[in-house]
Each structure stands twice: as structure tokens, then as C-alpha cells.
């Protein structure tokens, strides 16, 4: 039940839905998401962390950048 609650919390924000919509098209770095959403980097990172903790996205580091992609269900 806790996992389901986390999933719905991840989907409960319009910005997170927009991020998921962007990631449908493939992996993006935080800077790409920030550019498209025209949102400050800390705000984007917070939403991406929330999505990661909800199990909806996965991340990987490449140098100083972090890339996000949809998690496979």
C-alpha cells in the first residue's frame, strides 16, 4: 500500500506530469528539463528527486550532469 501511495504522490503535481511527458521521448539531463519548463534548476531537481523516490524515473551520472529516464514497469 505504501508503494501505491508514493506512486500517486509522484503524479499529484502538474510539473511532475510535465516532466514525465518530456521523458516519454527519451533520457534528458536536468538542464534540458529546466530549459523546456523555464523553471529554476533547484525546482526541477526537487521534482525529479520526488519522481525518483516514487519509482517513476531512474537516474545516472555522467560527469557533472545527471540524466533521467522513465523507469520500466
The global form is globular
Sheet with most strands: 3 strands, antiparallel
Overall SS class? alpha+beta
Helix content range = 40-55%
H/I helix tally: 4
In the predicted model, the low-confidence regions spanning at least 5 consecutive residues are none
- From the N-terminal CA to the C-terminal CA, the straight-line distance is 17 Å
Gist of the model:
The protein has helices at 2-10, 14-23, 30-37, 41-53, and strands spanning 28-29, 57-62, 65-70. The protein has 73 residues and is an alpha+beta fold.
Chain-wise SSE layout:
Layout: H1 2-10, H2 14-23, E1 28-29, H3 30-37, H4 41-53, E2 57-62, E3 65-70
Antiparallel strand pairs: 1-3, 2-3
Provide an overview of this structure.
With 73 residues, this protein is α+β, with helices and mostly antiparallel strands. Helix content is 55%, strand content 19%. The chain has 4 helices and 3 strands; from the N terminus they run H-H-E-H-H-E-E. The chain has a 3-stranded antiparallel beta sheet. Helix 3 (30-37) crosses helix 4. The longest helix has 13 residues, at 41-53. The radius of gyration is 12 Å and the shape is globular.
Spell out the key features of this protein.
73 residues, three-stranded antiparallel beta sheet, 55% helix, 19% strand, globular
